[in-house]
Design a protein that fits this description.
mainly beta; four-stranded antiparallel sheet; 0% helix; globular
């Protein structure tokens, strides 16, 4: 197993839980290693107790650049912009432009989902500007925990966005010009809905995972509030925190939860996972590699960050063929572990471009109470 070293460190002052690389920098060298950090700080009252209302949770979005050093492998993280917000739970880019605009969604503890536009030609201090946000939380004190975009594999000027809430609801919204319109909203879970995502190959299907240990699928062509889920699984033994559809390999989706386990599924047959691996620590974040179909980045809360190789018997590692029918044989191996964070390992992402082929692939990770951001490379 490979254990890389940190190449750069940044302290965002507040607890950090989200990190996302800019996906449109391939033709602009100064933007190829730009990334966003989301932070979350729960303020204490004078008597040391936690507040009960959402406005006591503050956050920031940082825009940063990872700068290479020509004389060594070490790097520098340079802050370009900061935006004061409510506490941030999740950040996700639309990986296809929307009506020529580069957009990113931010899920916050005040229950709001906000959309920002990136302006690559502007001064770096004005890189992100607000576009629109939801009109309020789904219920009083409900926090927006996660979001996802429907257009990962297709171009749409009016993409859909799914968002999950701490009151167990999931919202499906349509982005129409500069407005977020709610298409449907339903009670998906009996506890916090930590995660929601699209099946990128079939975006009429929305996945959700909750603190009730349930992993569910929903056909949004039918009103989910009036119909049963496509599946309702309790294979995880604790809350389901992360779900990610493999945008390279049709029918494959990965899930992770507080039970320390990563599971890989075939969406055509959801009775049981194709493979599972106990990583330890609890799984908060899963990210498939931007170019390599078998590589899966894992944020394992109390056990650092890891890169798994998810191989399919009969398929070459670079193959983007769909999962074979009839029950594919899948193997999960831990190849790389980054263990330099001293607190809860939450946010993680792959750099979306490889600037220098002679160097390993750049990865960014962040942890909570020590508010630490590290850059490192997969060899």
């Amino acid at each position: 197993m490979v254990t890389p070293q940190s190449l750069a460190y940044f302290d965002p002052v507040l607890c950090s839980d989200s990190l996302e690389f800019y996906p449109f920098g391939e033709s602009q060298s100064h933007l190829q290693q730009r990334f966003l950090i989301g932070t979350y700080e729960l303020l204490k009252t004078e008597d040391g107790k936690e507040p009960t209302d959402g406005d006591k949770r503050i956050g920031r979005i940082y825009v940063c650049d990872a700068i290479d050093n020509n004389d060594s492998d070490l790097m520098q993280i340079v802050e370009r912009q900061r935006i004061e917000t409510s506490a941030v739970f999740d950040i996700k880019w639309s990986y296809n432009r929307v009506d020529s605009k580069e957009l990113v969604g931010v899920a916050c503890a005040d229950g709001e989902l906000s959309i920002y536009q990136a302006n690559s030609s502007s001064d770096a201090s004005d890189f992100l500007t607000p576009v629109c946000s939801t009109s309020g939380p789904t219920s009083q004190s409900s926090m927006c925990c996660s979001l996802d975009w429907s257009n990962r594999l297709s171009v749409s000027n009016e993409p859909q966005i799914t968002a999950s809430q701490s009151d167990g609801t999931v919202r499906l919204m349509q982005l129409a010009q500069t407005q977020l319109e709610t298409v449907s909203q339903w009670q998906a879970h009996d506890a916090e809905a930590w995660i929601t995502s699209f099946d990128y190959w079939n975006p009429s299907v929305v996945f959700s995972g909750g603190d009730d240990s349930r992993f569910k699928g929903w056909d949004t062509r039918m009103n989910p509030d009036d119909s049963a889920p496509l599946f309702n699984l309790r294979k995880h033994q604790a809350g389901v925190c992360s779900i990610h559809s493999n945008f390279h390999r049709q029918y494959m989706v990965a899930t992770g939860g507080y039970d320390d386990t990563v599971m890989v599924w075939d969406t055509r047959s959801m009775r049981r996972p194709l493979a599972e691996s106990n990583i330890g620590g609890g799984i908060w974040r899963l990210k498939w590699h931007p170019l390599e179909p078998t590589q899966l980045l894992v944020g394992a809360m109390y056990n650092g960050f890891h890169i798994l190789d998810v191989s399919v018997d009969g398929l070459e590692p670079a193959s983007t063929a769909p999962l074979p029918e009839g029950g594919a044989s899948v193997t999960i191996d831990t190849q790389t572990s980054f263990m330099e964070h001293k607190s809860i390992a939450y946010g993680a992402d792959w750099c979306q471009t490889r600037v220098d082929a002679s160097r390993g692939w750049l990865v960014g990770t962040c942890s909570f109470y020590d508010h630490a951001v590290h850059l490192w490379r997969r060899p």
